[in-house]
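Provenance and format

Records in this collection were gathered into a single text stream. Each protein contributes a sequence line and a token line. The two records reproduced below are adjacent in the stream.
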Amino acid sequence: MHKLFIGMATIAFSATSFAQQSGLEACAEIEDSLERLVCYDNLAKKEQSGEQQRQDRELPEQARKGKQKAAEMREKAQERREQANERFGFEHKERADTEDERISVTLADREEGPYGKWRITLTNGQVWKQTDSGYFSWDGDSYYIERGALNSFFFGREGSNRRMRVQRVK
């Protein structure tokens, strides 16, 4: 009885193995790497759900679905490349058109840190720190933060052409 069970298990295993092997061979014959990957993914999903026998009948259908999915993915990738090529070099200009280049700010607090660099707290809760080593005159009460080139920012005082490079901390 025990030998009969082992024999039946061996036959069932070899039949499943043969079905899986034929599916793997069919996927291996697909030349396009993306379609082949989709075919292997579909085989793995079918194996996990225990539908190995139905898979052998649906193998041509799986290959067709894999080709469709691969074609869709190629189209989407091509569209993304074309969009990126159209915007190339204008990324900063598109952003600059929608955002302010200069804002007026009111100081809540300022403190001089190590090496003579300033830490500025604004009334709206933003905190900025000085990144360059220039001198800045604090005479007056009308200040601004201005966008510079290459995503830099400058803190300045209205009526003065002196300004310091700053970076937002908080």
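Adjacent record:
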Amino acid sequence: MPRSEKAETSAASLADACLGYLAENPDELLAFMQFAGLDPDTLRRSVGSTGFQRGLIDYFASNEPILLALCANSGMSPEQFMRVWHRLNPSG
């Protein structure tokens, strides 16, 4: 599998983990929706899109408390998370 496809697969899996974390933490989900300017219908329509996936990953990358909570709950290291983020944002 080409490197770019691996990165996209990793990004999709990571975005799913982010969304799962938000779904389990309604206060955090509300904060994300307010930050992103999403209402419930727009959120539902956006799930699965590349832009939404990147937005989720960016949101977690810029919010250390929920990034660390996600990593602790999923068994992933913050370094693993940030490697995916860096592949998506090579210029930083």
